[in-house]
Amino acid sequence: MQFGIFTVGDVTADPTTGRVPGEHERIKAMLAIAQKAEEVGLDVFATGEHHNPPFVPSSPTTMLGYLAARTERLILSTSTTLITTNAPVKIAEDFAMLQHLADGRVDLMTGRGNTGPVYPWFGKDIRDGIDLAIENYALLRRLWDEDTVTWSGKFRTPLQAFTSTPRPLDNTPPFVWHGSIRSPEIAEQAAYYGDGFFHNNIFWPPSHTGQMIDLYRQRYAHYGHGTPEQAIVGLGGQVFIRPNSQDAVREFRPYFDNAPVYGHGPSLEEFTSQTPLTVGSPQQVIERTLSFRDYAGDYQRQLFLVDHAGLPLKTVLEQLDLLGEEVVPVLRKEFANLRPAGVPDAPTHQARVAAARRTPQQETQA
């Protein structure tokens, strides 16, 4: 089980002070948060990709390349990379380069994005969103899997005997998570390729998340990659932690009430009861996170959102201390104890390289 954090990189006023960080300050804060994640023992840091204010992370591979040089163990990922508006050739080359720089500590989460104007900015039509996601990923897959690719599709000029460089490290491309909130076509795509499926369920009730994951698991088995229980699932979530729950609620409430993504709608109490948002003590976060198994089954990756809504850097780093010291060690132990035999570990580059080198008989026995 991998635990980590993901960021959307929003620049939001602190509602308790009215202070708005500058872009430079926010970007530097994201780097500090990522390095703190490794320091406290988390496994993954993932950054979103946005091209419009108030978000700053428009170039994830630049940020992750910097982090590759300043971390040793952290898996570097995205949440998400826009498979619809980015050129698949550029994604293939950028992430293969990043893979080499980070000695394999890289994976990729693809997504369609939720900002409509991004499509025309990159010469695309939002009405083609699903078709772009399907065609662009099919090309990306071939660019990584085949040394020489000849390609003709609907959305780009043909390729003739093209080789993407550098080639994936150890002939093993980055593991891919397909991120989707509500599109069954993307769950189907993840299942077809035997890739991972990530449901960022921070705004959705468990019943919806459960339906999407169940669809992915059933289709994963249909395509012959294993049993439904062996499908690779990741979940989102967001937490605010203090040693006691009263302090957590009191401190987080102004951020919730004024956050662009939360505020002026359901109350904090309503939102926490209907979504994975957990505001409370370490024990409450542990119990709530373990309950995700009830509708998602045994899964492989849990990412928390901790740095949004104008929360100051100091507060975010305190959240990471609590996650690393009091929450994640217990979750690791409990998830491991509960996991049935046959449910795979979270994918890593080293494990996938080793699996590729085993014979089919050895793989069955592994």
Assembly classification: single chain
Strand fraction: 5-15%
Backbone shape: globular
Largest sheet: spatial strand order: 3-2-1-13-10-9-8-5-4
* Number of helical segments with 4 or more residues: 14
At CATH level 2, the architecture is Alpha-Beta Barrel
Radius of gyration: 20 Å
Approximate helicity band: 40-55%
CATH topology: TIM Barrel
The total domain count is 1
The largest sheet, given as strand count, sense and whether it forms a barrel, is:
9 strands, parallel
Number of distinct beta strands: 13
Order of helices and strands: EHEHEEHEHHEEEHEHEEHHEHHEHHH
- Give the structural class: alpha/beta
What's the name of the CATH homologous superfamily? Answer: Luciferase-like domain
Keywords: Monooxygenase, Oxidoreductase
InterPro entries: Bact_Lucif_Oxidored, LLM_FMN-dep_put, Luciferase-like_dom, Luciferase-like_sf
GO molecular function: monooxygenase activity; oxidoreductase activity, acting on paired donors, with incorporation or reduction of molecular oxygen
Domain Luciferase-like: 1-294
